[in-house]
């Protein structure tokens, strides 16, 4: 049974990592009296992507937040949070629908979503109605993993990276969500286990490694706070925060 279960897990792993649900947007920013622009992008592999650009006001000088959602639902389900964010931070927000999510075409994968995020950042950098030196990447849960990769790849274009409820890696999530497989099968960060199936994980999203690289090599800015969401406990945020402290201590001693 364990062998069959592992085989099914490998075959259908994307269904566990990505849960876009309905393609329909139950509400739009207009329902919350937010002025917005429908934006259509093309990723580098030709996939058509949808996004909302919600401007605080035409002449507002504040930052622009590039918002990456969690793995379930679509961007419409995050509008309440975004509205609050805009009011409190006086910022504009660009909300991307990953491929396979919302009105975007395609099917989600780590490689695909990574280049989707790049398309969103490239679009923002071409706009003349924002301050491109004040682009802040915000990611929640899966979105934090997406944002971390984007920040690593674009250290000169991202002013800050904010992670909320972000996992350290997908293999590390096995213990959190309670799958009935021995932990040694997957290993994970901080584990001496061989992780014999890790090479079969198509979307590993190793955030802890990416964040470590950002902090050590590129001086990226990280603000991560423990915040429990449905799938990830605060221990994952704590690991990322402790990594930040470790790097800060190392750098201060140089």
Automatic annotation (TrEMBL):
Domain AB hydrolase-1 as annotated: residue spans: 87-184
Signal sequence residues: 1-19
InterPro entries in the record: AB_hydrolase_1, AB_hydrolase_fold
GO molecular function: palmitoyl-(protein) hydrolase activity
CC annotations in GO: membrane
Pfam families listed in its UniProt record: Abhydrolase_1 (PF00561)
SUPFAM superfamilies xrefs: alpha/beta-Hydrolases (SSF53474)
Keyword annotations: Signal
Name this polypeptide is given: AB hydrolase-1 domain-containing protein
Lineage: Eukaryota, Viridiplantae, Streptophyta, Embryophyta, Tracheophyta
